[in-house]
Amino acid sequence: MVIDLAVGVMALAVVALVAFLIPMFIQVRKTAEETERLLQRMNEELPVLFREALQAAQSMNLVANDMREGITGIRVLGEAMGEIGQAINRVNGLVRGGTGALAMNLSGLLAGFRAAYEVLKQRSQSHHQGGHTNGG
After folding, report:
1. Can you tell me the distance from the alpha carbon of 80 to that of 61, in angstroms, rounded to the nearest whole number?
2. Residue 131 backbone zone (phi > 0: left; psi -120 to 50: alpha; other: beta)
3. pLDDT of the chain along its 136 residues, tens only?
4. Residue 49 is inside which H or E element, if any?
């Protein structure tokens, strides 16, 4: 009788163990199927993602090269503007320093015009009076 009882307890333990293990194995199988589907999707989508990442990197390289070229152009423009500024400063300095010389040149030119006018006026007066002068 003790043996029958022990066999009965053991049978109940095995039934309880099987009752516990069956849902666990079912869950493991579901998890394995999900994992397989996930790996299959990753195998399908990763090459596409890698291609897109490569294209994005190439686009970034093109943008970086364009930016480098643009910066070079801006640097050249900045240097040209600096040279223009220097030229303007030089002209400004010449105008400031040369104002006196310009005024002297203009006054000399005006004096020359006055002298020429006087000579022409004298010739005109002497021509109307009937005498010819020889530039004097």
Report:
1. 29
2. beta
3. 788 888 888 999 999 888 888 899 999 999 999 999 999 998 888 898 899 999 999 999 999 998 888 888 788 777 777 787 787 777 777 666 656 566 667 777 777 778 887 887 787 777 666 655 554 4
4. helix 2-129
132 backbone dihedrals φ, ψ, rounded to 5°: -105, 130
Q: Would you say how long the chain is, in residues?
A: 136
Start-to-end CA distance of the chain, whole Å, equals: 169
Neighbours of 98 (CB within 10 A): 13
Spatial contact of 133 and 126, defined as CB atoms under 8 Å apart: yes
Burial class (CB in 10 A: 0-12, 13-18, 19+), 37: exposed
Instruction: Kindly state the tokens that stand for 47.
Output: 């090459």
Question: Does pTM top 0.85 for this prediction?
Answer: no
Which two structure tokens, joined as six digits, stand for 6? 């022990």
135's CB contacts (< 8 A; 6+ apart) are 119, 123
